[in-house]
Amino acid sequence: MTDASAAANEASGAADGTAGRRVRVVLVDDHRMFRTGVQAEIGETARTGVEVVGEAADVDQAVTVIGATRPEVVLLDVHLPGGGGVEVLRRSAALMADPDRPVRFLALSVSDAAEDVIGVIRGGARGYVTKTITGTDLVDAIFRVSEGDAVFSPRLAGFVLDAFASTDAPPVDEDLDRLTQREREVLRLIARGYAYKEIAKQLFISVKTVESHVSAVLRKLQLSNRHELTRWATARRLV
Which residues are modified to 4-aspartylphosphate (predicted)? Predict the structure, then answer.
Protein backbone atom coordinates (compact mmCIF):
# COMPACT_ATOMS: atom_id res chain seq x y z
CA MET A 1 0.00 0.00 0.00
CA THR A 2 1.37 3.44 -0.90
CA ASP A 3 1.69 6.24 1.65
CA ALA A 4 -1.08 8.08 -0.18
CA SER A 5 -3.40 5.04 0.04
CA ALA A 6 -2.65 4.54 3.71
CA ALA A 7 -3.36 8.19 4.41
CA ALA A 8 -6.63 7.98 2.51
CA ASN A 9 -7.71 4.90 4.45
CA GLU A 10 -6.73 6.54 7.75
CA ALA A 11 -8.71 9.65 6.85
CA SER A 12 -11.69 7.52 5.89
CA GLY A 13 -11.57 5.70 9.23
CA ALA A 14 -11.36 8.98 11.09
CA ALA A 15 -14.36 10.31 9.18
CA ASP A 16 -16.36 7.23 10.10
CA GLY A 17 -15.36 7.58 13.75
CA THR A 18 -13.88 4.07 13.76
CA ALA A 19 -10.16 4.83 13.53
CA GLY A 20 -8.25 2.70 16.02
CA ARG A 21 -11.39 1.02 17.36
CA ARG A 22 -12.48 -2.58 16.92
CA VAL A 23 -15.65 -4.36 17.98
CA ARG A 24 -16.10 -8.12 17.70
CA VAL A 25 -19.64 -9.04 16.65
CA VAL A 26 -21.76 -12.18 16.27
CA LEU A 27 -24.72 -12.16 13.85
CA VAL A 28 -27.80 -14.12 14.94
CA ASP A 29 -30.56 -14.36 12.34
CA ASP A 30 -32.36 -17.33 10.83
CA HIS A 31 -32.12 -15.95 7.28
CA ARG A 32 -28.78 -16.75 5.67
CA MET A 33 -29.23 -14.16 2.93
CA PHE A 34 -29.82 -11.44 5.50
CA ARG A 35 -26.70 -12.44 7.48
CA THR A 36 -24.71 -12.36 4.24
CA GLY A 37 -26.02 -8.88 3.48
CA VAL A 38 -25.18 -7.54 6.93
CA GLN A 39 -21.73 -9.12 6.76
CA ALA A 40 -21.09 -7.40 3.43
CA GLU A 41 -22.40 -4.08 4.74
CA ILE A 42 -20.54 -3.84 8.05
CA GLY A 43 -17.93 -6.60 8.07
CA GLU A 44 -15.12 -4.85 6.19
CA THR A 45 -13.11 -4.40 9.38
CA ALA A 46 -10.47 -2.02 8.01
CA ARG A 47 -13.22 0.38 7.01
CA THR A 48 -15.86 -0.06 9.71
CA GLY A 49 -13.96 -1.33 12.72
CA VAL A 50 -16.44 -4.20 13.02
CA GLU A 51 -15.12 -7.76 13.00
CA VAL A 52 -17.78 -10.44 12.50
CA VAL A 53 -16.47 -13.42 14.47
CA GLY A 54 -19.46 -15.75 14.20
CA GLU A 55 -22.96 -16.39 12.91
CA ALA A 56 -25.93 -18.42 14.08
CA ALA A 57 -29.36 -19.29 12.71
CA ASP A 58 -31.23 -20.53 15.80
CA VAL A 59 -31.17 -20.37 19.57
CA ASP A 60 -28.91 -23.36 20.22
CA GLN A 61 -26.38 -22.26 17.61
CA ALA A 62 -26.43 -18.73 18.99
CA VAL A 63 -25.73 -19.81 22.56
CA THR A 64 -22.87 -22.05 21.41
CA VAL A 65 -21.25 -19.46 19.13
CA ILE A 66 -21.59 -16.62 21.63
CA GLY A 67 -20.05 -18.73 24.38
CA ALA A 68 -17.17 -19.80 22.14
CA THR A 69 -16.30 -16.40 20.68
CA ARG A 70 -17.22 -14.02 23.54
CA PRO A 71 -17.97 -11.03 21.28
CA GLU A 72 -18.44 -7.49 22.54
CA VAL A 73 -21.79 -7.20 20.74
CA VAL A 74 -24.38 -9.67 19.44
CA LEU A 75 -26.76 -8.53 16.69
CA LEU A 76 -29.85 -10.51 17.66
CA ASP A 77 -33.00 -11.17 15.67
CA VAL A 78 -36.11 -11.31 17.83
CA HIS A 79 -37.77 -14.25 16.10
CA LEU A 80 -35.62 -17.37 15.95
CA PRO A 81 -36.24 -21.12 15.83
CA GLY A 82 -35.86 -22.65 19.26
CA GLY A 83 -37.44 -19.99 21.45
CA GLY A 84 -36.64 -16.59 19.96
CA GLY A 85 -34.22 -13.86 20.92
CA VAL A 86 -35.53 -13.74 24.49
CA GLU A 87 -34.39 -17.34 25.00
CA VAL A 88 -30.88 -16.48 23.74
CA LEU A 89 -30.78 -13.63 26.24
CA ARG A 90 -31.97 -15.86 29.06
CA ARG A 91 -29.29 -18.44 28.35
CA SER A 92 -26.62 -15.76 28.00
CA ALA A 93 -27.37 -14.01 31.30
CA ALA A 94 -24.03 -14.97 32.87
CA LEU A 95 -22.10 -13.56 29.91
CA MET A 96 -24.04 -10.30 30.03
CA ALA A 97 -23.30 -10.00 33.75
CA ASP A 98 -19.54 -10.60 33.42
CA PRO A 99 -17.95 -7.48 34.96
CA ASP A 100 -14.72 -7.82 32.97
CA ARG A 101 -15.91 -8.89 29.51
CA PRO A 102 -19.66 -8.32 29.24
CA VAL A 103 -21.40 -9.51 26.09
CA ARG A 104 -23.92 -6.88 25.04
CA PHE A 105 -26.93 -7.47 22.80
CA LEU A 106 -28.43 -5.22 20.14
CA ALA A 107 -31.73 -6.46 18.71
CA LEU A 108 -31.96 -6.13 14.91
CA SER A 109 -35.41 -7.10 13.68
CA VAL A 110 -38.02 -6.49 11.00
CA SER A 111 -40.59 -6.20 13.79
CA ASP A 112 -41.40 -2.83 15.34
CA ALA A 113 -44.09 -4.23 17.64
CA ALA A 114 -44.13 -2.91 21.20
CA GLU A 115 -44.24 -6.36 22.80
CA ASP A 116 -41.16 -7.49 20.85
CA VAL A 117 -39.19 -4.39 21.81
CA ILE A 118 -40.17 -4.58 25.46
CA GLY A 119 -39.57 -8.34 25.63
CA VAL A 120 -35.92 -8.23 24.57
CA ILE A 121 -35.15 -5.12 26.59
CA ARG A 122 -36.56 -6.78 29.69
CA GLY A 123 -34.39 -9.76 28.75
CA GLY A 124 -31.25 -7.64 28.89
CA ALA A 125 -30.65 -6.26 25.37
CA ARG A 126 -29.04 -2.80 25.29
CA GLY A 127 -30.95 -1.59 22.27
CA TYR A 128 -33.34 -2.34 19.44
CA VAL A 129 -33.10 -1.22 15.82
CA THR A 130 -35.17 -2.25 12.82
CA LYS A 131 -33.83 -3.73 9.61
CA THR A 132 -34.50 -0.49 7.75
CA ILE A 133 -31.39 0.96 9.42
CA THR A 134 -28.51 2.00 7.17
CA GLY A 135 -25.12 0.32 7.33
CA THR A 136 -23.47 3.47 8.67
CA ASP A 137 -26.06 3.88 11.42
CA LEU A 138 -25.81 0.19 12.32
CA VAL A 139 -22.04 0.45 12.75
CA ASP A 140 -22.57 3.50 14.97
CA ALA A 141 -25.18 1.62 17.01
CA ILE A 142 -22.82 -1.34 17.47
CA PHE A 143 -20.04 0.87 18.82
CA ARG A 144 -22.41 2.73 21.12
CA VAL A 145 -23.82 -0.51 22.55
CA SER A 146 -20.28 -1.89 23.00
CA GLU A 147 -19.56 1.16 25.17
CA GLY A 148 -22.65 0.58 27.29
CA ASP A 149 -25.07 3.02 25.66
CA ALA A 150 -28.70 2.19 24.92
CA VAL A 151 -29.68 2.58 21.26
CA PHE A 152 -33.14 2.54 19.67
CA SER A 153 -34.62 3.26 16.29
CA PRO A 154 -36.84 6.36 16.28
CA ARG A 155 -40.25 5.81 17.91
CA LEU A 156 -39.22 2.51 19.55
CA ALA A 157 -37.73 4.24 22.58
CA GLY A 158 -41.23 5.42 23.50
CA PHE A 159 -42.38 1.82 23.92
CA VAL A 160 -39.62 1.20 26.45
CA LEU A 161 -40.20 4.43 28.36
CA ASP A 162 -43.92 3.71 28.59
CA ALA A 163 -43.35 0.12 29.69
CA PHE A 164 -40.85 0.90 32.43
CA ALA A 165 -42.69 3.99 33.63
CA SER A 166 -45.63 1.77 34.55
CA THR A 167 -45.53 -0.70 37.42
CA ASP A 168 -48.48 -2.56 35.98
CA ALA A 169 -47.80 -5.68 33.96
CA PRO A 170 -49.27 -5.54 30.45
CA PRO A 171 -52.53 -7.43 30.09
CA VAL A 172 -52.34 -10.91 28.62
CA ASP A 173 -54.08 -11.27 25.26
CA GLU A 174 -55.00 -14.94 25.10
CA ASP A 175 -55.95 -14.73 21.42
CA LEU A 176 -52.59 -13.19 20.47
CA ASP A 177 -50.74 -15.72 22.62
CA ARG A 178 -52.09 -18.50 20.40
CA LEU A 179 -49.94 -17.22 17.53
CA THR A 180 -46.28 -17.97 16.99
CA GLN A 181 -43.83 -15.07 16.61
CA ARG A 182 -43.70 -15.59 12.84
CA GLU A 183 -47.50 -15.66 12.60
CA ARG A 184 -47.59 -12.34 14.47
CA GLU A 185 -45.17 -10.83 11.96
CA VAL A 186 -47.31 -11.97 9.04
CA LEU A 187 -50.47 -10.78 10.81
CA ARG A 188 -49.11 -7.24 11.19
CA LEU A 189 -47.95 -7.02 7.59
CA ILE A 190 -51.26 -8.33 6.28
CA ALA A 191 -53.09 -5.82 8.43
CA ARG A 192 -50.91 -3.05 7.02
CA GLY A 193 -52.02 -3.95 3.51
CA TYR A 194 -48.95 -5.82 2.26
CA ALA A 195 -49.45 -8.32 -0.56
CA TYR A 196 -48.28 -11.91 -0.07
CA LYS A 197 -45.30 -11.37 -2.39
CA GLU A 198 -44.24 -8.26 -0.46
CA ILE A 199 -44.45 -10.13 2.84
CA ALA A 200 -42.43 -13.02 1.44
CA LYS A 201 -39.71 -10.63 0.28
CA GLN A 202 -39.58 -8.73 3.56
CA LEU A 203 -39.46 -11.84 5.75
CA PHE A 204 -37.22 -13.86 3.40
CA ILE A 205 -39.76 -16.68 3.09
CA SER A 206 -41.75 -18.13 0.20
CA VAL A 207 -45.21 -16.98 -0.86
CA LYS A 208 -46.48 -20.47 -0.07
CA THR A 209 -45.15 -20.15 3.48
CA VAL A 210 -46.89 -16.78 3.83
CA GLU A 211 -50.15 -18.39 2.72
CA SER A 212 -49.70 -21.16 5.28
CA HIS A 213 -49.11 -18.64 8.07
CA VAL A 214 -52.17 -16.60 7.06
CA SER A 215 -54.32 -19.73 7.06
CA ALA A 216 -53.03 -20.66 10.52
CA VAL A 217 -53.73 -17.17 11.86
CA LEU A 218 -57.27 -17.13 10.49
CA ARG A 219 -57.94 -20.57 11.93
CA LYS A 220 -56.54 -19.78 15.39
CA LEU A 221 -58.37 -16.45 15.64
CA GLN A 222 -61.56 -17.89 14.09
CA LEU A 223 -61.62 -15.25 11.36
CA SER A 224 -62.81 -15.67 7.78
CA ASN A 225 -60.66 -13.35 5.67
CA ARG A 226 -57.92 -10.73 5.68
CA HIS A 227 -60.45 -7.89 6.10
CA GLU A 228 -61.62 -9.35 9.40
CA LEU A 229 -58.00 -9.94 10.32
CA THR A 230 -57.17 -6.27 9.65
CA ARG A 231 -60.05 -5.11 11.85
CA TRP A 232 -58.95 -7.50 14.60
CA ALA A 233 -55.35 -6.24 14.51
CA THR A 234 -56.40 -2.59 14.36
CA ALA A 235 -58.64 -2.98 17.39
CA ARG A 236 -55.63 -4.24 19.35
CA ARG A 237 -53.33 -1.51 18.01
CA LEU A 238 -51.02 -4.04 16.39
CA VAL A 239 -50.84 -2.20 13.06
Answer: 77
